[in-house]
Design brief:
single chain; Aminopeptidase; Alpha-Beta Plaits; 2 domains; six-stranded mixed beta sheet; binds zinc ion
Length: 410
């Protein structure tokens, strides 16, 4: 593409600004919340998006809905829309998700979370950033190519999925098992980023959520000698675990932010209701994010060893359970085509050199990496996802759309 052509494409995307705001406002009005979180799913929202896509003129629009009897529609919708390129064997996918998390405490919202509120460059509402911006920027990126009749080098396609926030079984996993994607495809997941749009996520850490129960003997607080203080032992065990894990798994990898594994004690269950009883049972949790160079089963076996050693030394029983365990998939190479095309396009639109990084984990990209498909996570965002007064900036939506529209033609 010549500079003049790029300029024409950028002007086309710019011309969609007010239409994009309207589109986003519509997206916000659908409460696409997962049944696990008390919602009715994404059905109505998907139908609205599909109707919008049908007017654009894609070469192919397909639905891959997954059966889910917990929602009124009995289906979790997934939309795939393709615009064919010169090479029909390879596809650049822009993957976004329709589901949103619940608004949380409504008193913390300045406006109705399910009614768009536009103020200057910002659109407020639940799901504006996560992941409405991605839905809108990818839709308008492809609309520009279709409207200008620019033939991409290979297919470009949208995968707009359900169920990202609660496990992806009815969303991206359903598409992967339905063989929608090929190994040689390129995947961009606009679902995390920073304010400058200068980071491309290519790797993630393994995740371990662990629950520890310490059982001692309950007694009156004035006679600790008659019992075994589970709270005291839980604190001591927690610190011993933390220190063992931090010192044993101490590799630095500058690809990641932060550049090391983290092992954080987080939730603690209520033990006794009153101050003057020594608890006989104390339950605490760890959230661990482990660099992919470590084997998480080895981490688990060291945790187990420490717990049984603790039981041998002290008069308590220690039980530990895995609440969640997700082994990091192999990272997407910094040299991969998807990362290189993304970097080049970001440079052309924003004039910056984006760098590849690893994060703490948890987007659709992991599912692709596990399936052996190159996937990069990128967007420009102030990171307000899951917060009250979530917003996206229209300028980010438009500039991200320019980046996506360039990727298949440079
Ligand atoms: Zn998201």
């Amino acid at each position: 593409m010549t500079t003049a052509n790029n300029k024409r494409l950028f002007e086309e995307v710019e011309s969609y600004r007010s239409e994009a705001v309207k589109f986003m406002s519509n997206l916000i009005s659908y409460e696409a919340i997962a049944p696990e979180s008390g919602g009715k799913g994404e059905w109505e929202k998907a139908n609205f998006i599909q109707t919008f896509l049908e007017k654009i003129g894609f070469d192919e629009i397909k639905r891959y809905d997954a059966q889910d009897d917990r929602v009124p529609s009995k289906r979790r919708p997934n939309i795939v829309a393709k615009y064919f390129g010169e090479n029909k064997e390879k596809t650049l996918w822009l993957v976004s998700h329709m589901d949103v998390v619940p608004p949380g405490d409504l008193s913390l919202w300045k406006t109705n979370p399910f009614q768009a509120f536009v103020e200057g460059d910002k659109i407020y509402g639940r799901g504006t950033e996560d992941d409405g911006q991605a839905v809108a920027s990818s839709v308008f990126a492809l609309k520009a190519l279709v409207d200008l009749k620019i033939k991409p080098k290979f297919n470009v396609a949208l995968a707009i999925v359900s169920d990202e926030e609660t496990g992806s079984k009815y969303g991206i996993e359903h598409l992967i098992t339905s063989s929608v994607f090929k190994k040689e495809d390129l995947v961009v997941v606009p679902d995390a980023g920073n304010e400058e749009g200068s980071i491309i996520e290519v790797a993630e850490k393994s995740i371990l959520w662990l629950k520890f129960s310490v059982v001692g003997k309950q007694t009156h607080a004035s006679t600790p000698n008659k019992g075994v203080n589970a709270s005291l032992h839980a604190m001591r065990l927690g610190i011993e675990l933390y220190e063992m894990l931090k010192s044993k798994y101490n590799i630095y990898d500058e690809l990641f932010d932060p550049p090391f594994s983290t092992f954080e004690p987080t939730k603690r269950e209520v033990n006794v209701e009153n101050v003057n009883t020594i608890p006989g049972r104390d339950v605490f949790y760890f959230d661990c994010r482990v660099l992919p160079s470590y084997n998480i089963n080895e981490v688990l076996s060291n945790i187990k060893k420490l717990c049984s050693l603790y039981e041998q030394i002290y008069p308590v029983e220690v039980k530990f359970e895995e609440v969640a365990k997700s082994e990091a998939p192999p990272p997407t190479s910094v040299a991969s085509e998807v990362v290189q095309r993304l970097k080049q396009s970001i440079k052309l639109v924003k004039g910056i050199d984006a760098r590849a990084i690893g994060i703490g984990g948890g987007t659709c990209a992991a599912h692709f990496r596990r399936a052996g498909i190159q996937a990069a996570v990128w967007m420009t965002t102030d990171s307000t996802a899951h917060q009250p007064n979530e917003y996206c900036k229209v300028s980010n939506l438009i500039n991200d759309a320019k980046v996506f529209s360039l990727m298949s033609i440079i």
